[in-house]
Amino acid sequence: MTHCNQRGVEALIGDLSHISIYEQGGIAQVAGILPRFLHNLPDGTFDIKELLGKIVNTTDPHFSNTRLICLENTHNRCGGKILPLQFMKQVKEIAESHSLNVHLDGARVLNASVAMDKPVDQILKYCDSVNMCFSKGLGAPVGSIIAGTEQFIASSVRMRKVLGGGMRQAGILAACALVSLDEAESNIQNDHFNALTMAQGIMTANTDQLFIDVQQIQSNIVFIQFLRDITSKEFCQRLTTVTKQEEIDLGQDNVVVKMSPWTDTSARFVTHRDLSPQHIHKAIQKVHYTIHEFENPINS
């Protein structure tokens, strides 16, 4: 709303972006902004030619004019993919040549920073504004921020006020956020390592029931594809229970594992700061045990 401060203007967004899928069409519903979709490629980017073809800047009253390009980094629905800096640079150059702004949905931008081993300002220099979440990759109890120029923030504060935002006595939450920043790099490195370790461990089951493309894992988000008759809902529900036989078979190693059904044939799991190597080992065991049950229903 700050960038697109006129009803009826356009924002270019990825069709698999968080803004597109998870906000009830809020930019249109609340702000009167027309979302125009760009096809997200598997790596979270979109085709530069498509971007150029959808920018509108005209005095013709029949058309809506473009004001904003939105990116997402890391990209959730593309499996935690990290946008290449060269792509972000291209988008920023195009935006500047058309007098547009670039906003980054950077809820997990520090995951991108750590994975690339680059300071976050090397990512954000290709954006005019960014939002970042403290309660995702950083593991704080709650909290997000938005950042931009002084003028942008002043306007954003006014927008937040009219939307009913703002909190009183929020210092205790800010303190948690500061702690999460202090510990961010090492915790995120562990998250990424744990995600890859768990994915690799699951694939040692040598099963034809599911598949993880381990080579595509770039951060702390992993997708599992189910290849046969297992549905993601069935599999994820089974992971949240511990049977009597499981207690006997696994002893102290029996655990509950939480994954999210993504589609009928895929599930997602995300590693976080509270997971130890022991937790990951037990989670792998749990998944293997569950796979064995589905492969041998009579014996389970």
Oligomer: single chain
Strand percentage lies at 15-25%
Give the mean pLDDT: 94
- Sequence of secondary-structure elements: EHHEHEHEHHEEHHHEEHHEEH
Radius of gyration: 22 Å
How many beta strands in the DSSP annotation?
A: 10
Query: Helical amount among residues, as a percent range?
Result: 25-40%
Number of helices: 12
The biggest sheet amounts to:
6 strands, mixed
Give me the side-by-side strand order of the main sheet: 2-1-3-4-5-6
Unreliable stretches covering 5 or more consecutive residues = none
**Classification by helices and strands:** alpha/beta
Termini gap: 54 Å
Shape: globular
Describe the SSE topology:
Blueprint: E1 10-14, H1 18-21, H2 26-29, E2 34-38, H3 48-54, E3 66-72, H4 85-97, E4 101-105, H5 109-116, H6 121-124, E5 129-133, E6 144-148, H7 150-162, H8 171-182, H9 184-203, E7 210-211, E8 221-226, H10 232-239, H11 244-250, E9 260-263, E10 266-270, H12 277-295
Parallel strand pairs: 1-2, 1-3, 3-4, 4-5
Antiparallel strand pairs: 5-6, 7-8, 8-10, 9-10
Helix pairs in contact: 5-9, 9-12
Which terms summarize this structure?
300 residues, alpha/beta, six-stranded mixed β-sheet, four-stranded antiparallel β-sheet
